[in-house]
Amino acid sequence: MRWAERKIIRIFSLSIFSLVPLSLSLLHSVFVLRKRKEINANINIIQLSFDVLANNPEIISISVLLLGSYIFFCAIWLIFFSRVFLVKHSDRYGNDVAVESPAQQLTTFFVFVFFWTTAVFNGVHRATVAGVVSQWYFHR
């Protein structure tokens, strides 16, 4: 094939492949036009939530404080949880065989404590945000 023929094939294939982004953009435009009422409703909800945040900026600091506390808890929990698996017993030849039964029970306990504490952090955050929103709603 000559150089000119290859150039024509390249130009034609690029023209064909350029139809893919065009069709995707047309589909996206049709989607946005059909869903504009839902999009406007979501925009109004977001504006309302930012209005609540503008009137109560301390909720952001409380959220950051709870997040930092949760990260600290997870770090401590991981340290303790990783130490549980160091409890093993050896057979008469000195080989580590398996995790002992108290260690299995301790593992179950640590997993339960992790899920319970995660639920407590989630509940405290939800209650705090609910209190701020109710204060804003009833006393604006």
From TrEMBL:
Family matches, as InterPro entries: Choline_transptr-like
One MF annotation (Gene Ontology) recorded for this entry: transmembrane transporter activity
Residues spanning the membrane: 12-33, 59-86, 106-124
Family: Belongs to the CTL (choline transporter-like) family.
Name of the molecule in the record: Protein PNS1
Superkingdom of the source species: Eukaryota
Species classification: Eukaryota, Fungi, Fungi incertae sedis, Zoopagomycota, Entomophthoromycotina
Subcellular location: Cell membrane; Membrane
Signal sequence bounds: none
Keywords for this protein: Membrane, Transmembrane, Transmembrane helix
Main location: membrane
A GO term from the CC aspect: plasma membrane
Cross-referenced Pfam families: Choline_transpo (PF04515)
Topology relative to the membrane: Multi-pass membrane protein
Protein task: Probably involved in transport through the plasma membrane.
